[in-house]
Amino acid sequence: MAGMPDVIDRAPRLILRRWSREDADDLFDMASDPSLGEDAGWRPHRTPEDSLEAIDGVLSKDGVYAIVSRANGRPVGCIELDRDPKILRKGPKDAEVGFWIGSRYRNQGFAREALETVIAAAEENGVSRIWARCYEGNEASVHVLSVCGFRFDHRSLSENDYTGEVAVCVFLRKRNGR
Fold first, then answer.
1. Which of 9, 25, 46, 168 gets the highest tally of CB atoms within 10 A of its CB?
2. Model pTM?
């Protein structure tokens, strides 16, 4: 299967592109919010250097995108399509998606639009099943996943370096929402 493109420019209000070091201030503004870190499972950024480290590290992987608003050209969140899902029941055409939206940009449809865009690009690149995980009680993510055709599959426990052991709900979306 081919890799995902560096830029996905097909959503009406968003562009999905690789993170750059120039995004560090915007990332810090969003990622320093403790509620975002708790929902996403990582420690809030304490300094702008934390954000630069994330951009140079975990956010530089293939399939990780800044969700950028066309209106102002600034990131509003992040979405990743991991072609090596961290789940037990996976096949060669499976992937896992994860996303977060900065607090001030929530409830504007950005997560749904970004997720629909990544799903379409993934299916064009041969992915037939897309998995997603979110923490139990994260109703906003559950809602977005449901609207985008994901269905509950199972619950599991997950070890998280920041929050400890937590219950995780796992969702599955098959090609064409089946």
1. 168
2. 0.90
